[in-house]
Fold this protein.
Amino acid sequence: MRFSFLNLAKQALSAHRHWPEQWRFPEPKAEYDAIIIGAGGHGLGTAYYLAKEHGLRNIAVLEKGWLGGGNTGRNTTIIRSNYLWEESQGLYEHSVKLWENLSAELNYNVMYSPRGVMMLAHTVHDIQVFKRHVHANRLQGIDNEWLTPEEAKEFCPILNISPNMRYPILGAALQRRGGTARHDAVAWGYARAASAMGVDIIQNCEVKGIRRDPSGAVTGVETTKGFIGTKKIGVVAAGHTSVIMSMADVRMPLESYPLQALVSEPIKPIMPCVVMSNTIHAYMSQSDKGELVIGAGTDAYTSYSQTGGLHITTHTLDAICELFPNVRRLRMLRNWGGIVDVTPDRSPILSKTPVKGLYVNCGWGTGGFKATPGSANVFAHTIAKDEPHPINAAFTIDRFKTGRLIDEAAAAAVAH
Amino acid sequence: MLLIPCPHCGNRPELEFRYAGEAHIARPADPSTTSDQEWAEYLYFRSNPKGLHIERWRHVSGCARFFNCVRDTVSDTILKTYPAGQPKPDLALIVKEAHQ
Amino acid sequence: MSDSKITRRSAFEGLHPIDVAGAVTVAPAPYATRFSFRGDPKAASACSKGFGVMLPNALLKAESDNGRTAISLGPDEWLLIAPDGEVEALEASIEKALDKQHHSLVDISHRNTAFTVSGPKAETLLASGCLLDLHVSAFPVGMATRTIYSKADIVLWRTAADTFHVELWRSFVPFVWGLLEEASQEL
């Protein structure tokens, strides 16, 4: 079934009661050519590109909960590619280019909105760092520009640029092609398109073990729905990556932290872009429903609790009220936490592993949503060809041994 | 916010503390003979368990001492704290004590 | 030698007084001599002789005698407070009593400053930024500890049922004072 104007009109005649299911709910087969662990955006996308670009149709995506119910459903949907190092720029820019055409490609509206991402500078150090980013990005053909406080206010009129703030705004870096997309639509769009090509998405199926033959190569996974055979496993389990990888006796350079976000009551449009601030630890945008979407920082300690300390969100709201005084009286409707897996250099790992047939896509820390299409695309290549795509060749586990780190202090606008 | 039992000062709010990562990770005694893999393990690779985690904290706005802490990373329940320098405790025993 | 004259300025200069009649008064404490002392129990016992007050072995305690106070901040760390102008004399007598035992004695008279919070609402006012249980059953007279007020490190010492002595770095004064002033308006 394709979404089209004609289809929409046809379904409207029966009050939209007869739309078919968007994806299948299959029971697992005995064996697959490849298994992806984790049905978030990155995992579903990987399955989609494996099927579409590499002809692997006999594959399954295993999910212990429901699809898109982990960090995909818990993030603040910011998209940008204004990273400092060439490796990161290549990866995130690949992603932005895929975002630009994703709705048409998937025939599913992922609501990509390049409304601009503005990162605020509050100190001389911020100015130097952001200007360095602007130059580094432009050399690679990635848009990023420097704004004065007045220009920043023109772009986002509710911004407080008073010099009497505790940390006054001294300027901003703006990436106009950055923006947002609808988080669950991304998961659903990939799920629908992958399912249509024969990919089995198996929900409520938790992986309990990874089986290997005497040579060490993977032969399948133990799950709550029984053993499933395969010679290739792609682990895309975000905060739980260390847990899954330990089933194959692989230790990871990862630590998992709770990261919180919250939304306000819905109001009329007041926020035309995304605003982020490193220094005072806050970022905000407005969803199409009218809610202000606010991201906080991580807790200090590792945890799998999917909650977080109230003092973390309070700290962020202090900063939000200072930056946007006219939202002071708004009520916050919901807050929640996700578990983010953080690497020592704040760059992801998209890599083969010491175990034959085991591949891992992790370490996105606080900023994985923006990379969903690009990450999935090159990870599918890595699994299909058993070698990395040139774009993710540098994002190995081995870099922590060789010392060739991709040190992105800017991997998220908030410090990790 | 956690309420952390400092082994010296008793229960104190989390904001008085700094987290300092996984505990009982010893620096290789002779870095010049340590392989790259061992050095990477020491610097970057962590257990990151879903369950009991032994970690360092510093009561920086209190007695300022480092100490070690056994915490369940699923519920954030703290099962035991003990001064730095003491050997790694028997986790099975701690779980048994906690259930008594 | 330069002939420029060094003048001493109070960290509380220019701040609004905090005084809510019948509830609470916040007042700058007089200038004082202060040391940070660190050492093992043997050194602490020697230091007690030189300082004239027994350095408490138990944690979170203040001992006072003859205008001098020793507060145990950690297992091997004490804050020593004495009247203004005794730095040289005390330093000499403590060093003599220690007789080259391993220790650290640092003059922090000018880094720190202090104020008192007194009155029936003293607990309530401090609770505006202090996370500890300040009820006298949990924080009795004679108890002292390093803690935080909002985001600033302080040393909090209960000198009487309704009086607290607050030690802090002098550069934190405007921040802490401003928050106390704001909180006092809600008493």
Observations:
- Chain B has a mean pLDDT of 95.
- Chain B is about 15% helix and 35% strand.
